[in-house]
Amino acid sequence: MKIGIFDSGLGGLIMTKALVKALPQYDYAYLGDTANLPYGARSGELVKSLALRGVEWLFREQDCALVIIACNTASIAALKFLQAHFSKRKVLGVVIPTMEAVCAGGFKDVGLIATQATIRSGVYEQELSKLSPDISIRPVATPLLVSLIENGGDKYAPEVIADYLKPLAGVEALVLGCTHYPYYKDLFQKQLPGAKIISQDEIIPASLADYLARHGEVEAKLSRGGSRFFGITDITEAYAQQAERMFGERVEINLVEA
């Protein structure tokens, strides 16, 4: 059985690459719902419906033992619903491990950039207040970044990022609250040179390894053939090119009906 990764688009390929590098022995299946991108501009109910369809496909068609919801918007809108719906399978999110990393860093003034839906939900602030209420978090919605990343708009990114990060001058750390955003990690660091960049592609692999170590019954189900499946719900030439850039090597992209 495989480890599944579900995302709203191609951003989760960055997460998949990190997982494969850290835990190469397992089989993986990735699904990006590019036909319905971006999730950050969708209603919570629609995101829940889309995520259900995608995760169900990964369990049914790819025989996944567990699925990681790499999309922050879907993780926030649908994780608890998905965990209840698939009570006999495992569905994991990305928000709590990210906030645990913030707490472990000993920061007091933290910036957060994410989609409009993620910022609007207030979930990061809520989870952080449970773990460490004395940490101040400054949220900023950055709705253009996903479109730039998905559509090869790199030449516009420096100016857009500089404008978005103006309110976050002086923060000790910057949380990238979207799995697309590590693609511009160097630009964020250049704009906020004194801040620690907290990126989910650096957090989730260790979190998954810890989870599997603590849940031997799940780890024992995972197959170890080193296979990789990459599926998206809409393919264009731009998507194919960008997928290779995000994964860092040539990948075979499959069009799926999920």
The level-1 CATH class of the largest domain: Alpha Beta
Output the structural class: alpha/beta
Quaternary state of the chains: single chain
Helices and strands, in N-to-C order? Answer: EHEHEHEHEHHEHHEHEHHEHE
Provide the spatial order of strands within the biggest beta sheet: 4-3-1-2-9-10
Please mark out the parts with pLDDT under 50 across 5 or more consecutive residues, or reply none: none
Number of self-contained structural domains: 2
Shape: globular
Question: Keywords for this structure?
Answer:
258 residues; alpha/beta; Rossmann fold; 2 domains; 4-stranded parallel sheet; 12 helices; 10 strands; 19% strand
Helices and strands in order, then pairings?
Elements: E1 2-7, H1 12-22, E2 28-32, H2 44-62, E3 64-69, H3 72-85, E4 90-92, H4 95-104, E5 109-114, H5 116-121, H6 123-131, E6 136-141, H7 144-150, H8 157-164, E7 173-176, H9 185-191, E8 196-199, H10 200-214, H11 216-219, E9 228-232, H12 237-247, E10 253-255
Parallel strand pairs: 1-2, 1-3, 2-9, 3-4, 5-6, 5-7, 7-8, 9-10
Helix pairs in contact: 1-10, 2-3, 4-6
Question: What would your notes on this structure say?
Answer:
By secondary structure, the chain is α/β, with parallel strands linked by helices. The protein folds into two domains: 146 residues, 3-Layer(aba) Sandwich (Rossmann fold); 105 residues, Rossmann fold (3-Layer(aba) Sandwich), CATH 3.40.50. It is built from twelve helices and ten strands. A six-stranded parallel beta sheet has the order 4-3-1-2-9-10, sandwiched between helices. Strand 1, helix 1 and strand 2 form a beta-alpha-beta unit. The longest helix has 19 residues. The model has no long low-confidence stretch (mean pLDDT 94).
